[in-house]
């Protein structure tokens, strides 16, 4: 067995089997579905986590005294993105979509992308399967998506809906190996790099993620071509969202409308249609995400971060405390990755 598989296996054992009380502490039940927040998986400074989906038999090889697997066979969901990649064998992924359970049969080389809050359940048959889970926080996925949204392509429809959790029927995408023959190579580069370095070389991991997303874009286009499906999306919405994200510190509804030659009222309705948010709420969300990213990834003074994010000082401190219940300085101390 290749060394990277053993390393990911050991990461999975350490994170989950030896921390069951912590997982139980964070998990809650919602309409019969187990809800697992990101604290169950990510360390404070992580935005990506890769693990192996372990069967009871596989775990018994390492922990012979294990007699119970908790929550076995139950649906669960979480507040981050997940990619399920079948390296060896096969797996069935059941997805609860709008009270209808969809059965996805994944075989070797397949990859399934799940949006946040997609209720699902994996069923693995046999003991020789090797299934990897690539987990990404929303903040990381949004930064990756921003680059894609800056160009007009058919993937934007899914990205927009997933980023704003607008259409629960579009809670996943399944990429079969035949749609793009380089997906295997790019996903394995990412997994191997993570196995060797973890998050120590995040820029390198970020590069591999961008390569993987490029391959997924190719696969998605090939899928649409094969099935003669066109995803309908406003021709300018991806450019508008990208512009607001890029210029969140200075963008206003009027300036953005002028940039795209729209009436401000029309632009406001358009944003509401695609994001379920008003312009000001969407801009505030992006500004806060920029501020928190700068807090934990740079040593810039807090006042400079406030200015760069486009906030008024007093307003920033008030809404920051409302959201996180701690001060920006305490947030930096807890979550800094420097």
Task: Write structural notes for this entry.
The protein is of the alpha+beta class. The chain has 14 helices and 11 strands. It is 49% helix and 18% strand. The strands form 3 sheets. The protein has a 5-stranded antiparallel sheet with strand order 3-10-5-8-11. A 3-stranded mixed sheet has the order 1-2-4. A 3-stranded antiparallel sheet has the order 7-6-9, with no helix packed on it. Helix 6 runs antiparallel to helix 7 (202-227) and helix 11 runs antiparallel to helix 12. The longest helix is centred in the middle third of the chain and has 26 residues, at 202-227. The radius of gyration is 21 Å and the shape is globular. The model is unreliable at 228-232 (pLDDT under 50).
- Helical content stands at 40-55%
Number of helices: 14
As a whole number of angstroms, the C-alpha radius of gyration is 21 Å
Strand content: 15-25%
Mean pLDDT: 80
Low-confidence stretches: 228-232
Biggest sheet strand order reads: 3-10-5-8-11
The secondary-structure class comes to: alpha+beta
The outline comes out as globular
Main sheet characteristics: 5 strands, antiparallel
Compressed to H and E, one letter per element, the order equals HHEEEHEEEEEEEHHEHHHHHHHHH
Instruction: Tell me the span between the first and last alpha carbons.
Output: 35 Å
Number of strands: 11
Q: What features would you highlight for this structure?
A:
338 residues, 3-stranded mixed beta sheet, 5-stranded antiparallel beta sheet, single chain, 11 strands, alpha+beta
Ordered list of secondary-structure elements with their pairings:
Blueprint: H1 3-17, H2 20-26, E1 28-30, E2 33-36, E3 48-53, H3 56-62, E4 76-78, E5 81-88, E6 90-97, E7 100-107, E8 111-114, E9 119-123, E10 130-136, H4 138-149, H5 156-163, E11 172-175, H6 183-197, H7 202-227, H8 237-246, H9 253-259, H10 264-275, H11 279-297, H12 302-309, H13 313-324, H14 328-335
Parallel strand pairs: 2-4
Antiparallel strand pairs: 1-2, 3-10, 5-8, 5-10, 6-7, 6-9, 8-11
Helix pairs in contact: 1-6, 4-5, 6-7, 11-12
